[in-house]
Structure formats: structure tokens, C-alpha cells
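Technical annex B. To support the medicinal chemistry partners, we prepared a structural model of the target in complex with EPU, based solely on the information shown next.
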Amino acid sequence: MDKIVIEGGIPLKGEVVISGAKNAALPILAATILAPGVHELYSVPPLADIRTAGRLLGSLGIKFPQGPPGRSGTPGSSGQDAPLLVDSSGLEGFEAPYELVKTMRAAVLVLGPLVARQRRARVSLPGGCAIGARPINLHLKGLEAMGVKITLREGYVEADARRLNGADIYFDTITVTGTENLMMAAVLAKGTTVIKNAAMEPEVGDLARFLTAMGAQIEGIDTDVLTIHGVKELKPASYIIMADRIEAGTYMAAAAITKGEVTLLNAPMPHLTAIMGKFTEAGVRLSAEPGRITLQPGGALHGVDVRTLPYPGFPTDMQAQFMALMSLARGASVITETIFENRFMHVSELVRMGADITVSGNHAIVRGKKTLQGAPVMATDLRASASLVVAGLAAQGLTEIHRVYHLDRGYANLVEKFSGLGARIQRMPE
Ligand code: EPU
């Protein structure tokens, strides 16, 4: 296993290109199940989670080229690259095995498409994860409302969808992958499905636009009421996956904490309103034009309060990185996590680097310090690991980040991108 070693304290400088969004690419890859033929996908990011999705699709008879990241025809990093060609003509299975789902919860996204196309599915229940219990009860309740018979057996969800009808569905809690799963089931159902209190995350909209390109009929895209008129069949499509707003936010945090001057290219600006708003409130100097966001060293950073919320609120996936930034701000900041019950695993590691943070329930109180010190650290999930990279870039001395596989799941070419901005960062064997 590798570790990442960072010598902190260098202001980042230069330009960085934001890759395609992991959380848009994963449902879109699952959606290729819905129509036989060759789909052309651009901007699929080179990530471990994408390779896992490829293995899962491969086990279902779908051809997915696996190869070195960025090579022609394999997951690349910008819309200019050759497309990833996913050939779903040979779909034959209906199962997502435990071995794959346990390494990536998003594998559960094949449930909706399998139900729609194969009229049956056997998908391992994901179980809990480092950030919370994360049940999928709302995905299952929605499918049942559509007439699907759900049985839980030996740790698997078994879905029998001989009947698949449109239904009126209301989510008690806003769920991103739940909305995506039900939308993918509904596009081939008989009749109309209305999903109320649907997630409005831009990645849900990106999936809806891909489904529309395949011939699906969806109204209310990007709103919290989705109306889906089922069609008989879909055709393969060509699509450019949206840029990753969380990757963009993470580079913004790294630029701000090092007092650097960084321009993000291919940044999905309209989706960054809440994030940019908090950075500005904290004293970060930002300028933005379409596709391009520049951060410049400004005055002192000061503590601001943040509460995570479903989109368009401040995303839970940026909470840890923003907390790292706040640990070097002037004054205090209260960070409230409302989406996941256990998403403060980075706090104790940041404290080991000298941060002053106390947790009370779902609030973290951060009292800004003048400096952080490098330390060996590790984290239990993707965004927590990203927060340690952000902190390490500003800390005095060396920070060693272990369990790099978390970062590999969600950050394309992280070491290369930060090196390109002048950071002293290396990946090396443990
Ligand atoms: N929930 C339920 N029942 C359900 C589904 C969700 O109670 O059936 C609860 C969850 O336990 C949680 C809340 O609803 O408390 C929201 O969870 P949601 O279902 O929206 O999360 P998700 O779809 O599993 C996606 C992203 C996450 C991101 C969340 C929230 C993907 C593949 N994953 O997860 O991304 O944090 O939405 O925005 O899109 C990440 O990229 O690091 C990541 C964890």
C-alpha cells in the first residue's frame, strides 16, 4: 500500500483542470444497462470507483475497457479525450455481488436499471460504512410502490419486477442515489412516475440529461419534483459528464489554506454557489467567469459557520475540507453536519496536527490556530482523507497520509495535479 507525503507551507500557484464528476459518472455508467448498444461517454474520471463500476458492468456482460487512466478509450480526465465506449449489447446477468458492493456502495445503483431492463435483480445490501448507517430502505419502498416484489435473503435484495408500473413516490428524506435508482427504474416502467422531494443535486440532473439523450421522457429536471413518462425502449447515447464540484471545492480549499493563487479550469461554477459563498464569507478572494474560478491571496481568513444540507445547500462532501480551512482561520466556526451521523472522523486526525476542534453531537466547534504541524495521519473515508491533504499542504513540516486508497477512489491524478501547482507532494510505498 502507498502513502502520500506532503511538505507543507508552500503557497499553491498555477492552473488545475477539474475532472469529470465521480458521482455523476457512477449512475451514468449504471444507466448504460438500460439500452443495448455502444454508449460514448466523455470525461469519465480515472478513479478506482470507476474501475470498480467497470468490473461490475463486466460481470453483467457489458464491455467496459479497463486500461491505464487517460489512455484513448479508457477513463480520461477532460472532454477532449477519446470517449469511453461502453458496449451493453451483451447484457446477461442481474446480480451485483457482495464482493463488489462492499468495496463501493454506489454499486447499488445497478438495482434500478436491472429492474427496468431485466425485470429482476439480485443486489447485495450495502451495509453500514465509515460515515453512517446509510440504509437503502427508501430505494426499496419506491420500487415496491412501482409494483416490484422485494425480498431480503441472505444479505441480498431480490427484486422481481414482472410488474413495473408508474407510481407516485414521496421521499421522507432526500436521497441522491435513491432518486437516481427510482428514476432509472421509471424510464422503462408502464405509465407515469412522479418523484416528490427528489434530490436536486446536479449529478441527479446530469443523469436525467443522459437518460433524456437515450430517449427517456423526464420533466422537472433539476427540481424536486420529477415526472417520468415510461417509454418502451431506450437507445445508446453519447454524453459529456459534468465537472466535479467537490473536486473543485477541494482545490479551492487547498488554494485558500496555502494563501495561493490558483485558477480552476472546467469548474462547474453554477453548482458551486453555496461553496463559493462560504469561501467569500471567510475572506477568500475569488473571481469567477464561466468555466474558470481564480483564488487570490487576500487578507486574513476568519471563522464562519457552516451547516451541511442537500443541494443547493452546502454539501456534506465538502464539510471535512472546509473544516481543515477553518482550523487556520481567525476566530471560531461552528460546523454542523446534518446529512450523515458519523462524518467527523477527520476531527481527531486534524487535532493531531494541532487543530483546536471539539465535537458535540453533530456540531464541531473549530477555534482557529496560527499554525498546524505535519504528522502521520490516516482517515476512514474519501472526504476525510481529502481534508488531511488540505491541512497537510498548509502545515509546518511533513505530513504522511496513510490509506491512500480512499483518495484514489475519488480524486483523479491528485499527486500530479498538486505537484503541477507547486506543492511538494509525493506518493511512495509504505
Ligand atoms: N437515507 C435513508 N434511507 C435511504 C437512503 C438514504 O435514510 O434509503 C439517508 C442516509 O442515511 C443519509 C441521507 O439519507 O442520512 C442522505 O443520503 P443519500 O442517499 O442522499 O446518500 P447517497 O445517495 O448514498 C450520495 C453520494 C455521497 C454524498 C451523498 C449526500 C453518490 C455515489 N454518493 O450518497 O457521496 O455524500 O449523496 O450528498 O452519489 C462521496 O462522494 O464522498 C460521497 C459519500
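Notes passed to the chemistry partners:
The CA atoms of residues 41 and 84 lie 5 Å apart.
The chain has a mean pLDDT of 94.
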